[in-house]
Amino acid sequence: MLGPSLESHGGMASCASTLLNGGLDRRCNVRYLATTEEGCKARKLACGLSTLFVFSREAKDCDLVHIHFSYGVSMTRKALFVRRAKNMGKKVILHSHSSAMERAILEGDSGSKNEIKKFLSLADALIVLSSKWKDLICDELDIKRSIVHVIPNGVPLGDPSAKPDHDERSCCNILFLGRLEEEKGVGTLIEATGALVRNGAVIELVLAGSGSDEETQRYQLLARREGVNCSFVGWVDSEKKRDLLVEADVFALPSKREVLPISLLEAMGAGVASVASDCGSVPEVIHHGRNGMLCEPGDPESLRTCLALLVQDPVLRKRLAIQGFETVKKGYSVENSVDALLGLYKEVLHG
């Protein structure tokens, strides 16, 4: 299995780590190789070249190659490994994680689309995270539907019964997990929270994720200007993430673009009432008002309306948290993902 370093920040590394820790490594003999790691461009390049050398030596003994990828540089980098694997006669499974690819497919020129199609066509099987993505890729790029398989992100389940009752505390804790950038709607979240604070709500906003120094400073200034009590805790490991989810009353992810965000599934799987943007495959998970709330991407007023309902109504929060947990338990557990992945491995090898 190839992908970013398991210590990297982001959903792709989180997905790979969750699969491995969720039982995949106990049910098949899998070796994970990192094709990139956090750091400067030179460090990323050195990691990729070093891994390509190791891969060329060790792939001789493997049955198939499972490659996690996103759009842009990641796709270009992974093409080297795909071609090397195919030249060695190995079966290749590509695992798509990129929301940026949607824009390239729908808005890009014919050259961009042909580049994506050429890369995806190298695979013996292609994993996408939702049925919407399968339809997009098959319809727009004319990829054979038989090779495209929907395996949603899976997450470990928390224990909602162990979550403390926060109904009596005066301050509502709103948590964000993700990169600190406009694509994830961080500015929108701060503005929406500021509007609630000006209307008398008592809120602690916790932003957990990495971002450039410039972006972080900009959001810190925006939070002060909006009068928001905002904690910037940086990137967090799985243990710290669990602690933050236990303390959270509401999870918010107002992204402008998404595929199927793993942080949203983690929050719902931990029993936290969640608000997310109506984009990508999020509406396949959240049904507005039933197991979570949907807001319009990039719209602070839409987000403010959703957050206001949850901040003011602990009963609603609890109901959505319970239903959100049940949604993840039924369809997005890591056990389901591992079972589906092992089934695909067998199909590719013996089908």
From TrEMBL:
Gene3D superfamilies: Glycogen Phosphorylase B. GO terms for molecular function: glycosyltransferase activity. Keywords: Glycosyltransferase, Transferase. Residues 48-157 form the Glycosyltransferase subfamily 4-like N-terminal domain. Pfam families: Glyco_transf_4 (PF13439), Glycos_transf_1 (PF00534). InterPro entries: Glyco_trans_1, Glyco_trans_4-like_N. Residues 174-324 form the Glycosyl transferase family domain. Belongs to the glycosyltransferase group 1 family. Glycosyltransferase 4 subfamily. This is Glycosyl transferase group 1. It comes from Eggerthella lenta (strain ATCC 25559 / DSM 2243 / CCUG 17323 / JCM 9979 / KCTC 3265 / NCTC 11813 / VPI 0255 / 1899 B) (Eubacterium lentum).
